[in-house]
Amino acid sequence: MPTHQTVSAALDSHRPPRWSTRFSHVLLGEDSRQRLTLTLLGLASLVTTTVVLLLMYAARIGVADVGQVSLLAGLFFVFIVGFYALIRSGENRRFADPTLAMPQTIIAQSLIAASYAMTGPVHGATVIMLALVMVFGMFSLRPASVRLACIYTVSLMGMVMVWCARHDPLHYPARQEVFNFALTAIVMLAISQLAGQLSAMRTRLKTQKIALEQALSHIEEMAAHDELTGLPNRRRMMTLLQEHATRHARGGPRFYVCIIDLDHFKHINDSHGHAAGDAVLRAFARQAQVVLRNTDMIGRWGGEEFLLLLPETPLGDPALGVTRLRDSLAELPASPSLGDLRIRFSAGFARYEHGEPVDQAIERADRALYAAKSAGRNRSVVL
Ligand SMILES: Nc1nc2c(ncn2[C@@H]2O[C@H](COP(=O)(O)OP(=O)(O)OP(=O)(O)O)[C@@H](O)[C@H]2O)c(=O)[nH]1
């Protein structure tokens, strides 16, 4: 019975996307990496807007020249729109670092430094913006690049502060500038340090992710394979059978199901021990993989039983490969410790009939196997 969640999930998938989703797709595109890059640019534009507001305030109270403020606001606008166009058009992918984090950081810091010189009594607020830009950069830049950007910021701000203290000591008193410079340097130093730690954390997470992926693929391998023989296990064979049945229902090739059972295997176990029995199972699996066609799939069905999935061939006789396997095993000692003991087996074949459940074909193959055993073993029967 469908649950509430499955019904609502099915309804959701048929519902047209909400306007906000559509808008975000138009604005940021579909590619998740590009969306992330644009989101960071969006945050940078927030910083930019704040700085422009500060500039406008400085112009309004008469400490900044309106023309210069307009020019700087225009440059901020060109900076944001230019980078947006570069990223949204995909042109950023041509660069070694498609996030363009370094040029964005350098340009943003330069424009903020210029704003610092123009905002007179409210210039202190721009120092916070410098720190914010570096924090955004920290998520995309390597630690060395963060250090470089911090050195650039501190040097640039040092020069701007000296220039301001000389040309406008009223709004930029030397003592306050020394304090601002020390504050900028300390913040940049702290950000450099944090960037290193963040990068180490990212590397650790990446290593853990790779280890988890490897563990998962190992678990998947274990869940689909038989430990003793290395062949696909019953569950995997069942999946393959279902897949072939579905493919056949859609016009794919017909196939045969064959169940193989080693003859008198209990006797091998009883007279040579369980380990010898295991060695025989492994030898059989190895030889089957060597002799059968690549398109024939064999798996361990359980105990001393194996299941084969054989796509139908124009030759007609589905037992050809199995006969080849029987002949090769007759030539080959089962195991060095078992003298000249040979592996013998009985096999039952059933042709998969269009539209029937795979269990039905397996049941017929089982009956054919029973017939092969009853007829004296070491033979194949096709039903
Ligand atoms: N060594 C070993 N033995 C197994 C394993 N799985 C099942 N067996 C043994 O396989 C034997 C199967 O015995 P039976 O079902 O009587 O079949 P059989 O002796 O081959 O007789 P027929 O099939 O009639 O020829 C049992 O003794 C099981 O214990 C395994 O993984 N390793």
TrEMBL record:
Recorded superkingdom: Bacteria
Keywords: Membrane, Transmembrane, Transmembrane helix
UniProt cross-references to CDD domains, sorted A to Z: GGDEF
InterPro entries for the chain: Diguanylate_Cyclase (IPR050469), GGDEF_dom (IPR000160), Nucleotide_cyclase (IPR029787), Rev_trsase/Diguanyl_cyclase (IPR043128)
Span of domain GGDEF: 253-383
Membrane-spanning intervals of the chain: 36-57, 69-87, 148-166, 178-196
PANTHER family for the chain: DIGUANYLATE CYCLASE DGCM-RELATED (PTHR45138:SF9), REGULATORY COMPONENTS OF SENSORY TRANSDUCTION SYSTEM (PTHR45138)
Protein name: diguanylate cyclase
Species for this entry: Massilia jejuensis
